Amino acid sequence: MAMKIGNEKFKDNVNKQMEDTFMRGAVAGAQERLRTRRLDAAEELGNWEEWRSHGEEIRQHTLDHLDYYLQELSENLQKRGGHVFFAATAEEANDYVKGIVKEKRAKKILKAKSMVTEEIGLNGVLEQEGCDVIETDLGEYILQLDDHDPPSHIVTPALHKNKEQIKDVFTEKLDYKLTSKPEELALHAREKLRQEFLQADIGITGCNFAIAESGSVGLVTNEGNAGMVSDLPDTQICVMGMERIVPTFEEFEVLVGLLTRSAVGQKLTSYITALTGPRTAEEADGPSEFHLVIVDNGRSGILGTEFQSVLQCIRCAACINVCPVYRHIGGHSYNSIYPGPIGAVLTPLLGGYDDFKELPYASTLCAACTDACPVKIPLHQLLHRHRQVIVEREGRAPISEKMAMKAFGIGASSNPLYAAGSKMASSVMKPFTKDETISKGPGPLKAWTEIRDFPAPNKERFRDWFKQHEKESGKL
Amino acid sequence: MIQNKERFLANVASRLSRTEVLTERPSRNWNYRPQDKTLTDKTQDELVDILRDQCRLIHTELIETDSSGLPEVLAETVAAYGGGPLAIWQDHRYDAFGLREQLATWPNQGIDVHEWDPSIGHDNIGIVEQANIGITFSDITLAESGTVVLFSGEGKGRTVSLLPHKYIALVPKSTIVPRMTQAAQRISKQVQDGEAIASCINFITGPSNSADIEMNLVVGVHGPVKAAYIVIEDR
Questions:
Q1: Domain ranges (residues) in chain A
Q2: What is the pTM assigned to this prediction?
Q3: A286 in B contact zone (CB under 8 Å)
Q4: Contact A223/B147, CB-based, under 8 Å?
Q5: Looking at the domain that runs over A51-295, which CATH code has it been given?
Q6: Distance from the CA of A430 to the CA of which of A171, A416, B15, B198 falls in 20 to 30 A?
Q7: A392 exposure class (CB count in 10 Å sphere: 0-12, 13-18, 19+)
Q8: Do A304 and B15 touch (CB under 8 A)?
Q9: Range of the structural domain that residue B56 is part of
Q10: pLDDT tens per residue across span A61-71
Q11: How far is CA A375 from each of CA A240, A243, A364, A368, B45, rounded to the nearest angstrom?
Q12: What ipTM is given for this predicted complex?
């Protein structure tokens, strides 16, 4: 799986997803819980706006000096015996990892949740090499068992599935015989995965934040699976998006606190681990070989542009949890591993407008995302900017918008046409009008009135009203 | 070994309108520092109160005692968690806190104790994996979040807190600081002083958990299913 998760058109995806009533209920409920938890955690901390501003300045500073900090990170990790590979593309990153797998003759590879390895499609590449690649985050494990069902949320990837569906997957794939109680399902996964952990040749993790001053990699989980993946196999590979870095432990602490509160409303998650190179000569557990793969894959193309602030993202999904559009269409509609407002901004930048030009329109521009973002990315402004670029620079506005604008252009530029059109509007729409509203509109109005009413054109035109008004006030 | 660095960083620098990669450390002049005024005015006793309240939220039992009561409290907690086998660090603090006698007593009661042994290397892992309870000291303890911070090292295997079915952290009261800020500052100072930091620094907050199935909280997924902190009055 790469960043793009299917070949269907955006509209077809949306129509299909809107039919899925379980998914829509699950998404709405999850949004509500996650949103409330975040607000409670922010209130409890106090000075939330000051924390956000600090988070923003840290992220901006780091991006503005990214070359320095990546250099510092790589040199410090090397001093601790780690290997660093800078990968300009997904292919370079995958080839490097493939090289390690071949050298180690690795068969079993365990992974902790990582968005960037999804983005570069690493699992598929390793499976083609004949490796057994096992996801260990419970949500991702469920999706992987279910014939690689794509994730629908960046923090809780199996959000769209209910426990009955999960039980069915376990029954079919794991010979599971118990009930759909989450405790029993989780215990079964624990037992299955514990054996895998102990036999793994290579562990692969992502990276929430690398720490430049010490050459460390920071991982944030609740389940403890990242610890298993990094402690047990003899070789560890961390894959990080190149912007996921902070200068020192002091900034690491600030961003981890913003991440855990914004993502799940916890002060800290159960496991936060800072790994610095392989185990030392005196130590008996931990990997003997440590590799860090730093991935560009389109990110540098965003740096230095009007979209740079999207690279401030710390992948907390707070924007997703407040988005009214995501609430209705769900994660799969975005056709990208990055859904919601952050996905609608980021996906077209990484994947191009050809495949993803609809995404910036999957927003009401209500700015709830911008208000929720713990590092103050102006998400709704970036979505608006995307639309401007799509229309002005790319010349590919949506067809309906193009037709409407063209029709308005013709109608408004000719005096007789405008007069005739505006006079006729009321009577043309009369068959569709009831109580001053249109609830079943024709043609281009159909998509709108399927879900809400449209106000009927006023019987009296503004121009006629104005003439009459002036006459009555004696000015003519 | 570092590969592909020059080309990669030259591109990043040019995107940032620089002709060469920045080699001078940028100064960090933050306009905001909310961490300096968060819980920094609390006394050590107030921090214990905060830790106690937080432990309720993270499904972690908090027990308070002093050095003389510690062996008994630990024995009770171990019994309540179903006894051995136990896995512990090779750590002089067990002696400093008067636990050596208790550690010697357990095997006579049929409770195996595995003390981390660097000389047997990876074989430690298999033994620890079979342990019912892992017991370690906390190196730094964060009151706000209810977190124990563990630095890996020669006798301090990282898996002791992760693989056993339950986990007990011994928390000397003097290790308690307000929040992660103070731990981060201490580690950062080590780096600046040129000391080697631990290869694995674990911030552990209660037992492992997941909410991946219908957003229901399940306590105990890959790591321990239960956790207790024993706070020891030590000054």
A1: 51-295, 399-472
A2: 0.92
A3: yes
A4: no
A5: 3.40.50.10420
A6: A416
A7: exposed
A8: yes
A9: 39-233
A10: 999 999 999 99
A11: 19, 14, 21, 14, 34
A12: 0.97
